[in-house]
Amino acid sequence: MIKVLLFIIAFLLSFLSIGQIKEIPKYQPVDLALHNEIVKMDGIYFDAYNTCDMKTQADLYHEDIEFFHDKGGLATDKQELLKALKENICNKVTRTVIKGSIEVYPIKGYGAIEIGYHKFFNKEEPNAKSIPSKFIMVWKNENDRWKITKVISLH
């Protein structure tokens, strides 16, 4: 009898806790113009990434860049980061954003945070399956120019 009573209590408690879970709201841009601007900047950056345009990439990275990669660790030296991209990415890897996945949040007095999903395709492993992965980029607006100050790349 005690086992049945404990089961019923556990069942009711789990039922009550499910009722308290709030749904995650669907993303709606707080500032549509900012959202569109950051999506445009993302496109400019990754066009440069995909075509090995190192000048544009260098122009978009802030001098105090912090690039967090779940597999590669933290890079904080802009020139070393650019060198690694040139040696390991150029003409080997391309990136595509998952359409509709980008979220942009304004950061007052600083810029914006971009969160989204993308896929990478390795030209040296053309049959490898590309799995969507999450990324976060922090954009700083300095003198009406957007710069990437932080990247978090998760695979």
UniProtKB/TrEMBL annotation:
It holds the Pfam family DUF4440. It comes from the Bacteria. Gene3D superfamilies: 3.10.450.50. Residues 39-148 form the DUF4440 domain. InterPro entries: DUF4440 (IPR027843), NTF2-like_dom_sf (IPR032710). This is DUF4440 domain-containing protein. It comes from Polaribacter pacificus.
